[in-house]
Please model this.
Amino acid sequence: MKLQAQAGTNRYAQEPKSSIIGIGLTIHNAPVELREKLAVPEQEWPRAIEEMCKYPHIDEAAILSTCNRLEIYSVALSFNRGVREIEEWLSSSSGVPLEELRPYLFLLKDKDATRHLLQVSSGLDSLVMGEGQILAQVKQVFKVGQECNGFGRQLSGLFKQAITCGKRVRSETNIASGAVSVSSAAAELAQLKLPTQDWETARVAIIGAGKMSRLLVKHLASKGCSEVTVVNRSAARVEELQNDFPDVTIQMKLMPDLMEVVGESDVVFAASGSESILIHKNDVEGMVTPPEVVGGVRRFVDISVPRNIDPAISELGNGKVFNVDDLKEVVEANKKQRAAAAAAAETLIFEEQDAFDAWRDSLETVPTIKRLRAKAEDIRQAELEKTLSKLGDNLTKKERRAVEDLSRGIVNKLLHGPMQALRSDATDASSIGETLENMYALERMFDLKEDFVFPGRK
Model:
């Protein structure tokens, strides 16, 4: 249902402008136990967007869900009501009571929200500063959004700007120079926990054969690991890994063999797309204790969200589970090394935010342009009918067409100047203020006081 508001002399002084809202939780402020409950698989993003846009004050919506964050971006016709509606959706979709959810949520409005997304896309808000996977994930949000009615003009423009910003930061600073990923941090953490810190003394298994697993194989190989067992639902992806990493002996196993593989491994990485626990405490209890060379402890590194490894395994004397939240100790040094690059990136982010703000402000003149044209057309039609009635029925079709063309030509020439004054270069932030002042003046001069209707959904 569209919301309406009466326009005054300056409708922007009296009517609420739609707000961009950013709300969610990240690895910086919420534990994995909560993040996994709110995680939304990519195939569910269109459904989530559709559900949110059914609320009366949510005009557009987008969802960014990764192992480290769940963030909702929306264009709301009322900020406070929009926030309440998004919170309601988050609670109902996750099953987490709102009073338990609220302490962990961040809430950002307009420039703060857009700035945050630009920082996220640039890798500045990542657990591993400068990592490249988040930019690919932001691109995927934009790609999925193109097929969703609720991913409208403003969010489309915002995510385009975020992608541009992410690319600029990585190409114009050294933020990504030698950057590590979640996968490489996981490999490093596991190596630090081994008594010998030598992969040649440990038997390694990886659950899953997707992007995260590919990066795990790459970084394990770079650290001296020459043999890995990969467990996956299908053989095709494992065969790709075998072809792409000829220097690593990759043994392929399918999911029915999972427990056998775990029992024969000292370090198990979980990087699958499963949305449930794959290895429980009681699965591990009866397994043979690993050899003393690895400390008699079977180590599980779970970088999946939702988690795939039961954290209760750590209660066993010969088992220890690490998850993505445990990677912080590994990546802290990474942040210090990239402090200068982060400062340079912030400068670029400011530039990209100014560009987006200018583009968004330029959209404000569109309703005025339409109403000015509509008013001019109403006047032209009325005066044309008067003139034709005075001239009588003796005019030929050619003569009537000439009179009509004359009226249309006069109107177009008169409107040319005002229309030019309402059109600005959205890439030039300095020209936007002048354009908006022209808009206010034209609204007063032409008495454009019709009811203002907020743009409907796409």
Q: What stands out?
A: The two ends are 13 Å apart (CA to CA). The longest strand covers residues 19-26.
